[in-house]
Write a structure and sequence with these properties.
about 25% helix; 3 helices; alpha+beta; about 110 residues; 5-stranded antiparallel sheet
Length: about 110
């Protein structure tokens, strides 16, 4: 889980300001050290409560702690991408087995 690319869709309790978006993009100092996301953007320009954030850190509850630091509460957190794997085509609560190729790629560390 460490140093693998993870993309989250975050729904916040209030709209994220442009100033706070810039602060997060530049990096935030947390109790266990600094964190700078690879990317952060609004999922929908009309709804600033929904944010997409890409990180490589595997630290515990890192996404929630980033937003908590700036006074936001995470209402919904959905990891939509992990190490080359997506949930595309799966409905909420559904799952699937990984293909042999996906398992091999994960074992080799071939995914970001």
């Amino acid at each position: 889980m460490y140093n693998k690319k993870k993309i989250y869709q975050v729904t916040l309790n209030k709209e994220l300001t442009d100033e706070d978006m810039a602060t997060i993009a530049a990096g935030v100092e947390l109790e266990d050290g600094p964190i700078k996301p690879d990317e952060i953007s609004f999922v929908d320009d009309a709804d600033h409560k929904k944010v997409g954030i890409e990180i490589h850190s595997g630290r515990n509850r890192i996404v929630r702690r980033i937003f908590d630091k700036l006074g936001y509460r995470v209402m919904r957190l959905d990891r939509v991408f992990f190490a080359g794997l997506t949930k595309k085509g799966l409905k909420r609560g559904e799952w699937r087995f990984l293909t042999e190729k996906e398992v091999s790629m994960l074992r080799m560390g071939a995914f970001e």
